[in-house]
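Quick one, T. Sequence first:
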Amino acid sequence: MTGLDWFIVFLLNGAVIAFGFYLARSTKSSSDWFLGGRSLPWWGLGLSIFATSVDNADAVSLTGYAFNHGMHIITAFTLASVCGAVLASFVVVPVLYRGGFYTNAEYLETRFGKSIRVFSALIQIQYRTSMLGLMIWSIYLMLQGILDFTPTQCWTLIALLVIFTAAYTTWGGLTSVVWTDALQSLIMMAGGITIFYAVWSATGGWSTMVDNLSQSTDASKQPLINWLHIGQFQDAKSTSPYLIVMGWTIIGMGYYTVNHTQTMRLMGARSLWDMKMAALFGCLLIMPIMIGTTLMGVMGRVLVPEFTPQDADRLLPYYANQYLAPGFKGLVVAGILSAAISTFDSIGSALSALFTRDIYARWIKTDATEAHYLKATRWATIGILLMGFLYIPFIARYDNMIQAFRTLIPVFVTPLFTVYIVGVLTRVPRQSGLVGLCAGSLYGLIGFIDRVLVKEQLFSPWLTEVWYAFPCSMIITTLAMLAATLKWGWLKPDQQLELQTPASPEKHNWLSESRQELLAVKESPFYRPVPQYLNPNWYAILLIAFSCWIIFGLFW
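Structure tokens:
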């Protein structure tokens, strides 16, 4: 890294952090901190959704994962991302938005009872702090690979990054987070395009890459050209590509519902129309960047065939050192750090909201003032960001970071996602939520033990192997919830309608009073009916069709 590179890194990222502190001055109330006062427009939210979804762990680990396993992971960022965003913004989150809820876990208490609310909050905290761990580890690999830092220098810089991010996030809440994310997304796009063009040029373009891959095989004699074709690639267990696509689709769809870092943004929209357009705009931005990042992993098979599977996560730092001129390397590093900061602040603000509203204010301190809870939320943000470091020893055990993340998802996240969907779409009884979550989580724990903690599998792969685990988890959770109707019966239609309005607690407190502030719902920001050319339904259909073509046409 030259002086020019460092100047670019500090200028771009320093300016964004300073802007975050500037915006934080306007945060005064709970609705400001948690939901941006429900005033955020679609384009700002869309940029923030992009910046939160594309983090530095993706930049490092996607190239490594694609080097080892080919292109099938793009399903998570195309078809799965679009379907998940549509499901969340058109079906699930509008129910929460109309009900005046601040968190997705808060809705579950009204739908299924108090216990499942706290379980949801705890599962999400575990789920997203594990993502923090991936990000921290990827920054460490990047700093070592690109900057040639010592371990002490790496961890010192990472700690400073977390401290500065926590500072403006704790002060400003969602408003600061969304608008800093919007700026960071531009830096991320510039850095992503820069390194992709450099690697693409070094490869010689599409035709040269295809020719080289067609003439080579991997250690198991599988043609490397299969890395470009989802339908032809065979993993070590010869898993069906359709099952792999299904697994990634479940992961991606759950990301937008169970992950409060995204539902928090959607719930901060100024109208339901903005909510839907923001989700679609975010997906549109995510697709080309993530496809390009994944392709760079496959290009590694041409550029550095000597790399082993264990070297794969070091591929992006290698590219930056080999193919980027001074100035451009600084732009790429700035983009990777921006990706880290944008997801740090998003996870910190979202999970602290879950902790404060769904655990602390609901169970521990139920009668304090708004100022007290805002202070508690700010301290919780710092604690959440520090929790990510606890996952480093687990992540370091795996050859690739995404493998570590993927094996955790079916344990609790997929059952919780299923509970949300069944709860919104059907009239299963209140008791069924806890029944389904317990059944799905028990299955997830058994599968995790079988996959990770014992040397020889105890059960059939049909039950516990990770790609089978995603659909099986949804099936088991759904069947358990439906079985609960045999004992408690279906909810009556009038009971279902009550879910869309806040309960009236006997005792007024901060939780109930803050919900009352958010009851006003706007369908759109327009003063007349939404024109057909601005109807989100049409854009949703186009994006779903386009994603299907990418998966089952272009790369199949």
